Write a sequence for this structure.
């Protein structure tokens, strides 16, 4: 057979969409390999529990196949298939992954193939060689034996009642080197009963034209099976190659969530799926499921313990984020002006950043998101824009610091409340000992003095400030540091360089971000833009606590309320010790006449400022 076929040059047929796929020309199967090829990604190591979580998320998204792993390769995958078999999946069909039989060994005697049967899945995916170079150099066998290995393995699995997906490894390299032999390998799989033939760009070096024309040829040669594609991203065109294969007749696409995979990753399904559905009108997910894409992408990155790709198309946080002022004013008029799709279609959202490139539209838009309408205040808006530009020139960055931006807006409106005033602070760092921090703050008329040891200077300051404030503001118990980033602004100044600190905090329900700049890294997070040291601590938690109150106050503000400032109770004297914590040392306030007495709770809550 091989000699006859080798003499026939492969035809290049026209693309005829009415013949494509088993789901019709407007439907492709989505085959997810986040759990197998994605696990090959550097830095990813799933537990069995992680894999089950991702399996459930993929099933909720509505993918057709989930490749669970390689049961012959590791015990973790054996356990996964055991437990996954009991999952009540609605959409996804599980596939076990493995290779064809080894050379010169009977299929029934190959432990890899029998291990695939043990996984108990209805579908099995096996890969085989398409490239003559690999057959002779890597397998060190003959071209005919390789064809027999493919056919025997597929037949063995079919006879065992399995449905077979055949992955033609290195297909495009093989097709470039010897197109006839590459075609013979996929014909061998199809004739033995494989129901899907998947052309793999294993090295990730193919280009879209090449992929499309090869897919057209295979489609014409093997019309009885569904054609698939599996692309790697080494040339940064895995998504383009996948789309090209679909245009060439493929109706089964393989890839991973967020593009996880070995080396540069696999085709990113988070880009493939929306491009197919929204640009080419070819559906990959059940109706309505595309809107779950962003949430699924972020959930998988959470489980995989990877930071979500901010600039990832469609699902990234910046995918529909606008910074330049001219864009923002255009977007106010027409969303289509700078967005290629409606972000809601993929479950994402438009964001507007505050930066030195911004115009009044950004300020208006950001303030509106905070519940503050500045549309009737052109002077305030102009002043705010100038203020942000001046601060950014000094190193501040407000793009991702909505807490600090809120303070700027409230200050510009003359409605920024002061919950406490920092009088002074001091940190003592001792070689080989615990750092000690002392903090003096003023709340209303009371001056409170607290001290604390800590595991580091930031921790000591944080503990001391909490100790000083917790009596007046018990809510700060809930505040936690979530993330803390430090960036040197003038590297040539060495350790005296100005430092920008970005702090993300949360209270278990919401998160907020703040920014500060100072040559002293300890003071950086406590230098909110354009203020006196109203809260100078290195941890950022206490500063964030104040930000939170402002944000809360702002959100609660009622337009009809005449109050414009936080009311005080004049003349009330509150002197107390700060709360003693097991991990800190607290000293009494200097004027405290009643040691160990806790302050009476405030009888009236702090009123929010009104912002119109
Ligand atoms: Zn792969």
């Amino acid at each position: 057979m091989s000699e006859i076929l080798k003499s026939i040059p492969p035809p290049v047929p026209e693309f005829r969409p009415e013949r494509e796929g088993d789901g019709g020309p407007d439907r492709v199967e989505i085959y997810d390999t986040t759990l197998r090829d994605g696990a090959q990604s550097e830095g990813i190591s799933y537990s069995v529990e992680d894999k089950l979580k991702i399996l459930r998320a993929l099933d909720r998204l509505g993918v057709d196949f989930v490749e669970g792993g390689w049961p012959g390769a590791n015990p973790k995958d054996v356990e996964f298939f055991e437990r996954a078999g009991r999952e009540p999946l609605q959409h996804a069909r599980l596939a076990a992954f493995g290779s064809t039989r080894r050379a010169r060994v009977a299929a029934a005697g190959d432990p890899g193939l029998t291990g695939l049967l043990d996984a108990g899945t209805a579908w099995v995916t096996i890969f085989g060689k398409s490239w003559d170079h690999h057959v002779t150099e890597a397998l060190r066998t003959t071209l005919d034996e390789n064809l027999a290995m493919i056919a025997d393995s597929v037949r063995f699995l079919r006879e065992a009642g399995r449905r077979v997906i055949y992955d033609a490894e290195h297909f495009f390299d093989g097709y470039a080197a010897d197109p006839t032999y590459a075609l013979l390998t996929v014909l061998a799989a199809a004739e033995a009963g494989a129901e899907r033939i998947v052309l793999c760009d294993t090295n990730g070096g193919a280009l879209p034209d090449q992929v499309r024309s090869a897919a057209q040829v295979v489609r014409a040669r093997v019309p009885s099976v569904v054609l698939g594609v599996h692309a790697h991203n080494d040339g940064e065109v895995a998504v383009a190659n996948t789309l090209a294969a679909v245009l060439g007749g493929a109706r089964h696409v393989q890839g991973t969530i967020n593009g996880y995979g070995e080396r540069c990753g696999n085709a990113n399904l988070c880009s493939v799926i929306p491009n197919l559905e929204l640009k080419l009108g070819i559906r990959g997910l059940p109706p309505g499921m595309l809107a779950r894409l962003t949430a699924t992408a972020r959930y998988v990155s959470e489980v995989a313990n990877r930071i979500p790709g901010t600039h990832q198309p469609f699902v990234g946080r910046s995918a529909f984020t606008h910074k330049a002022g001219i864009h923002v004013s255009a977007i106010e008029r027409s969303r289509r002006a700078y967005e290629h799709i409606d972000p809601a279609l993929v479950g994402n959202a438009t964001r507007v950043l505050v930066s030195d490139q911004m115009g009044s539209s950004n300020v208006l838009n950001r303030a509106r998101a905070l519940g503050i309408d500045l549309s009737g205040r052109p002077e305030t808006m102009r002043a705010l824009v100038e203020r942000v530009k001046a601060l950014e020139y000094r190193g501040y960055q407000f793009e991702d610091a909505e807490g600090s931006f809120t303070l700027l807006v409230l200050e510009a409106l003359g409605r920024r409340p002061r919950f406490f005033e920092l009088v002074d602070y001091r940190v003592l760092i001792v070689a080989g000992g615990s750092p000690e921090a002392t903090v003096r703050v003023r709340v209303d008329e009371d001056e409170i003095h607290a001290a604390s040891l800590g595991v580091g200077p930031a921790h000591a300051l944080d503990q001391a400030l909490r100790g000083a404030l917790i009596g007046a503001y018990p809510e700060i118990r809930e505040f936690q540091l979530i993330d803390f980033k430090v960036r040197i602004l003038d590297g040539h100044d060495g350790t005296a360089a100005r430092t920008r600190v970005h702090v993300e905090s949360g209270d278990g329900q919401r998160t907020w971000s703040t920014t500060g700049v100072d040559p002293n890294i300890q003071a950086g997070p406590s230098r909110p833009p354009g203020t006196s040291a109203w809260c100078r601590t290195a941890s950022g938690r206490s500063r964030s606590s104040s930000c939170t109150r402002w944000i809360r106050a702002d959100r609660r503000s009622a337009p009809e309320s005449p109050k414009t400032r936080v009311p005080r109770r004049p003349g009330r004297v509150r002197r107390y010790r700060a709360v003693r914590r097991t991990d800190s040392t607290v000293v009494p306030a200097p004027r405290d006449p009643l040691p160990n007495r806790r302050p009476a709770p405030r009888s009236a809550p702090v009123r929010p400022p009104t912002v119109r």
